[in-house]
Amino acid sequence: MSQKYRPATQLVRGGLTRSNHAETSEAMYLTSGFVYDSAEQAEATFKNEIAHYQYSRFANPTTTMLEEKLALLEGADLCRLMATGMAAVHSALLSHLKTGDRLVASRALFGSCHWIVTTLLPRYGIESEFVDGGDLAQWKAALSKPAAMVLLETPSNPMLELVDLPAVAKLAHEAGALVVVDNVFATPLLQRPLELGADIVVYSTTKHMDGQGRVLGGAVLGPKKWVEETLMPFIRNTGPAMSPFNAWVVLKGLETLKLRVDQMCRNAAAVADFLSERTEVKRVLYPFRADHPQHALAVKQMSAGGTLVTFELKGGKAETFRFMNALKLVDISNNLGDAKSMVTHPATTTHMRVAPEERARLGITEGTVRLSVGLEDVADIIEDLAEALDAIGAGASARAAE
């Protein structure tokens, strides 16, 4: 399909390949392997002399359709799918890095990404250095010597910190590094990392792309040469493949991605404004609010503020848990980007294995709450939050009276 079409059209039409049955919906090819007309055809396939599906660990017609759709949407040469978002991050890094290489990463990473950088990579003799993502001086210092890769999230999980992508990409390229961006929070609709200087983009398709809590998946997108010569040998031989069924579910989810993300962004902006007015809330972080520390950068790099709101309650862990437990509509869950609104306590869930001093440096306190705003009527979301915040006050009054 042509690149000329706009994102909403690509989400519905991109990558569609119909079989001889001329089906309307993408076909689901639930097969582990494929057959050949002859032994000669099989040999030629394995020698890469002809194009023919071999094994669903390598490629499958259903996963191919999703890869082509995502590549069109992202503006990337190629896309390869993984079983999970973490498999995508792991594959992007380990396919490229080797002993003696150096990685520079933004400090604000998802907990499992943080573990890969601090625990896994050093086992293979790969040096890593963290910087505060919003501090260009730290990036400049870290990239003043050669590096093989840069890894960052923007906006970050959970504190919604942004990284100046064009500036960091320039520094990284001068140091000889490829820039890997986890764009999950922004989605390909709100931010275009490749256009801002990134080389590789990774996603958990579990989040907004499926967006309805059904299947796991991940994606890596990048330049043709790198995908074919570096990434593909790694994933062919290590096997982090997405199942055709999961790919089909994500294909169906993508058809409504723009509708969902647009509405969720509107809901999130309204929720952020509501929370900012509550006395129980110490601070609210939402990229498109004027009081976000990097508001100007957010407006420059993103087309909307996103579907996540992070806020800090004035009380500690006990009061934060009391608030979360009082929610009736919003679910307690560590997932995000779902049609259903979800809340989590990063310090005891997604980032619990990050050292306490590192969490403190990131600004993750016992009162920090990450809210993924869904598709419910925003008035109902706000009412539920209000009642739960009221419960904090009621609990404090009751304890004072004892």
Name given to the CATH homologous superfamily of the largest domain = Type I PLP-dependent aspartate aminotransferase-like (Major domain)
Strand order of the largest sheet: 1-7-6-5-4-2-3
What's the level 1 CATH class of the largest domain? Alpha Beta
Largest sheet, strands/sense/barrel: 7 strands, mixed
What Rg, in angstroms, do the CA atoms define? 22 Å
CATH-defined architecture of the largest domain: 3-Layer(aba) Sandwich
The residue fraction in helices comes out at: 40-55%
How big a fraction of the residues is strand?
5-15%
CATH topology of the largest domain: Aspartate Aminotransferase, domain 2
Q: Would you list the SSEs in sequence order as H and E? A: HHHEHEHEHEHEHEHEHHHEHEHEEHEH
- Average residue pLDDT: 96
How widely separated are the two ends? Answer: 69 Å
What structural class do the secondary elements suggest? alpha/beta
